[in-house]
TrEMBL record:
Keywords: ATP-binding, Nucleotide-binding, Transport. It comes from the Bacteria. Signal peptide: none annotated. SMART domains: AAA. GO terms for cellular component: ATP-binding cassette (ABC) transporter complex, substrate-binding subunit-containing. It comes from Endobacterium cereale. It is a peripheral membrane protein. This is ATP-binding cassette domain-containing protein. GO terms for molecular function: ABC-type transporter activity; ATP binding; ATP hydrolysis activity.
């Protein structure tokens, strides 16, 4: 199966204004499960539709393997049906007057495969997707999850080299979404098909993808493995978009009302251009450690159980801090609780929202909290 390469891809719907997709450079490797992730209007579905051939480029080039499928410069455009890919829509798009078996068989009939070969392929894919018992039913007789499996089966039956999924789980309830996430991972492992999956659900992307491409305002923000996206966000947008509860973002300087917490972390002088520091809720600890940075005594405002974990909201004057834990809290709302942060859990950003790496700030002047014998920001 081929790689998909997007080079300087741009899509404009109007002659003036912000492009829907702006100068996108992205490679989706053979056999990869790539999630295009971002808020509504970020350009992720438009990107998918351009790969599928449902939208023409305004500029740039798309290759599938060594074959150019869309290029404004060379005047090349390969129609969708010749790109050897399958597209699963959010609405499933099943034929209501056809049984499950006939829906799955539809693409094979268009390709004029012999009946014995068609039947073998349909039976194989129904068995793998566990929908063999529904072969004679019609879509209206199926649940949402079952319809989703049929839509996937119809695409997999024609053996596409690439499978494109446009928010296919958004119509399902929470239980079915969880089941279908596991199903998609199993299918990817079993078939080895290259999958491009569009979603605005960060947890869907984190649990499904081998690689995530985060988009905002039509531009690519970061590409990487889920752990890298979460633990090393390249900019403030990615840091704040990924994570639930969201990252605690503390402004440094220039805001007297927030100076208290910032001054506990750093001196009043700018730190190599840093204007904000982010701390993930789970990277805050309520236990003092040798290398922990004390943040101060906070008032516990509320405890929100989420089933197996708890989110605790703290306040210090006008400042708010969220802490996530898998340990049952012993404190009660109204109690004063000492909070700490681990140095390696601090994420620095400059005025443009770009990440500042630790090696860029080793020479910076950092406040020395009581009991800390080295710069609070930097791990040994």
């Amino acid at each position: 199966m081929p790689d998909i390469t997007l080079t300087h891809v741009t899509k404009n719907y109007v002659s003036h204004g912000q492009p829907a997709v702006d100068d996108l450079n992205l490679t989706i490797a053979n056999g990869e499960f790539m999630c295009l992730l971002g808020p509504s209007g970020c350009g992720k579905t438009t990107t998918l539709r351009m790969i599928a051939g449902l939208e023409h480029l305004s500029d740039g080039e798309i290759r599938i393997g060594d074959r150019v499928v869309d290029s404004l410069g060379s005047g090349t455009f390969v129609p969708p049906e010749q790109r050897r890919l399958g597209l699963v829509f959010q609405s499933y798009a099943l034929w209501p007057h056809m049984t499950v078996e006939r829906n799955i068989d539809f693409g094979l009939r268009l390709r004029k495969l012999p009946e014995t070969e068609r039947r073998a392929k349909v039976n194989d894919v129904m068995e793998k997707l566990r929908i063999r018992d529904y072969a004679k039913r019609y879509p209206a007789q199926l649940s949402g999850g079952q319809q989703q499996r049929v839509a996937l089966a119809r695409m997999l039956a024609v053996s596409p080299e690439i499978l494109l999924l446009d928010e296919p789980l958004s119509n399902l309830d929470a239980t079915l979404r969880l089941e279908m996430r596991a199903e998609l991972r199993r299918l990817h492992d079993e078939f080895g098909t290259t999958i491009v999956f569009v979603t605005h659900d960060q947890w869907e992307a984190m649990t499904l993808a081998t690689t995530i491409a985060v988009m905002s305002g039509g531009r690519l923000q970061q590409v990487g493995a889920p752990d890298d996206i979460y633990s090393r966000p390249v900019n403030r947008f990615v840091a704040e978009f990924i994570g639930n509860p969201p990252i605690n973002m503390i402004e440094l300087g220039g805001n007297p009302s927030r100076g208290g917490l910032a001054s506990r972390l750093f001196s009043d002088r700018p730190i190599s251009g840093a204007t904000a520091v982010g701390i993930r809720p789970e990277e805050i600890t309520l236990t003092s450690r040798v290398d922990a940075v004390p943040l101060g005594a906070f008032r516990l405002e509320s405890i929100m159980p989420t089933g197996g974990s708890w989110i605790m909201e703290f306040s210090l004057g006008a400042e708010r801090l969220f802490h996530a834990t898998h340990l049952r809290p012993t404190a009660k709302p109204g109690d004063m609780v000492e909070c700490f942060a681990m140095p390696e859990g601090l994420h620095l950003f400059d005025a443009e929202g770009r990440r500042i790496e630790a090696n860029e700030i080793r020479a910076a002047s950092v406040a020395q909290p009581a009991g800390i014998s080295r710069p609070a920001l930097l791990p040994a």
